[in-house]
């Protein structure tokens, strides 16, 4: 998804792998007009095109021995993809309008919110470039699926904005508020909320509930069954799976059967049937894909 914090991850990789003095250079491929993207990446010589009054180094040269982060790589035009592939293979570039090979040594990190394999099948992304880039893919899930990252991300944002605190950055209530919010805009929305809170903050940290007045606690979207369970190739004991789910529902509702039925979105009659499985553990297990409601109930 968009805004999940891909650049944050790229910057962390840079900090871990490089010395502090080495540069982190970011370029959003979707934000540069296609006819200017090559010049931004590889630089240009004087007179290479209208308006090129002097030679200029591109992002590859500017990154030097640091990190070049190419965001939205899936939007790169095919002709620029050809030159990027050559740069990766040859470890050198040529400026637009030039013929001199310039060695490059930066680490290349790319990001996209598109399905690149689908783009390859559509002919919009080069297959050879895809396999050159997909050496170590990292999937970054949306923020609502990794709520444990919220507090560290707030700390990172506060530090990035130049605010320091020797104590806690968030009160417990503020942390709960942020963890309960579904963050449809992901990390980008979180950073905007923290920046707004710091601007309006009267006094020192930590940030509390009142500092996030624009955040309203709403129930997070209910995950689909496919997000909760993946059937292993060897199958499962279906009845044991149902028993496990019933036990968890009863545990979460402190034994309240009506609440447990609502939690599982089944009728009381259906829940009593499921409850009977807890008392009968001698039945032969059956293999099935997932639990679902009986539409007649």
Return the CATH topology of the largest domain: Rossmann fold
Could you say how many structural domains there are in total?
3
Give the CATH superfamily of the largest domain.
P-loop containing nucleotide triphosphate hydrolases
Average pLDDT for all residues? 85
- Low-confidence residue ranges: 281-297
Summarize the biggest pleated sheet. Answer: 3 strands, parallel
The CATH class of the largest domain is Alpha Beta
General shape: extended
Side-by-side strand order of the widest sheet:
1-2-5
Count of individual helical segments: 13
Radius of gyration: 26 Å
Distance between the termini: 36 Å
Task: Bin the strand percentage.
Answer: 5-15%
What percent of the residues sit in helical stretches (DSSP H or I)? 40-55%
Order of secondary-structure elements: HEHHEHEEEHHHHHHHHH
Question: How many strand units?
Answer: 5
Structural class: mainly alpha
What is the correct CATH architecture of the largest domain? 3-Layer(aba) Sandwich
Supply the key terms.
297 residues; mainly alpha; Helicase, Ruva Protein, domain 3; Arc Repressor Mutant, subunit A; three-stranded parallel beta sheet; 5 strands
Word description of this protein:
The chain folds into 3 domains: 128 residues, Rossmann fold (3-Layer(aba) Sandwich); 70 residues, Orthogonal Bundle (Helicase, Ruva Protein, domain 3), CATH 1.10.8.60; 55 residues, Arc Repressor Mutant, subunit A, CATH 1.10.10. The C terminus is likely disordered. It is built from 13 helices and 5 strands. It has a 3-stranded parallel β-sheet with strand order 1-2-5. Strands 3-4 form a two-stranded antiparallel ribbon. By secondary structure, it is mainly alpha-helical. β3 and β4 form a beta hairpin.
């Amino acid at each position: 998804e968009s805004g999940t914090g891909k650049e944050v991850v790229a910057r962390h990789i840079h900090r871990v792998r490089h010395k502090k003095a080495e540069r982190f250079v970011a370029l959003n491929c979707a934000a540069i007009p296609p006819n200017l993207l090559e010049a931004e990446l590889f630089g240009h010589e004087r007179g290479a095109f209208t308006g090129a009054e002097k030679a200029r180094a591109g992002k590859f040269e500017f990154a030097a021995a640091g990190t070049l982060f190419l965001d939205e790589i899936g939007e790169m035009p095919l002709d620029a993809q050809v030159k990027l592939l050559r740069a990766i293979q040859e470890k050198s570039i040529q400026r637009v309008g030039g013929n001199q090979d310039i060695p490059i040594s930066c680490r290349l990190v790319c990001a996209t919110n598109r399905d690149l394999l689908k783009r390859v099948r559509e002919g919009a992304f080069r297959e050879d470039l895809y396999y050159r880039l997909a050496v170590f893919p990292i999937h970054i899930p949306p923020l609502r699926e990794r709520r444990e990252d919220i507090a560290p991300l707030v700390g990172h944002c506060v530090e990035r904005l130049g605010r320091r605190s020797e104590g806690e950055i968030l009160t417990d209530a503020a942390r709960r508020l942020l963890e309960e919010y579904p963050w449809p805009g992901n990390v980008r929305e979180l950073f905007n909320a923290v920046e707004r809170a710091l601007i309006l903050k009267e006094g020192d940290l930590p940030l509390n509930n009142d500092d996030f007045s624009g955040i309203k606690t709403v129930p997070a979207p209910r995950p689909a069954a496919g997000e909760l369970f993946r059937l292993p190739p060897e199958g499962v004991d279906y009845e044991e799976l149902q028993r496990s789910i019933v036990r968890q529902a009863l545990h979460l509702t402190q034994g309240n059967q009506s609440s447990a039925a609502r939690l599982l979105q089944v009728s009381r009659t259906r829940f009593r049937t499921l409850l009977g499985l807890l008392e009968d553990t001698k039945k032969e297990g059956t293999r099935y894909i997932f639990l679902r409601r009986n539409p007649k109930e």
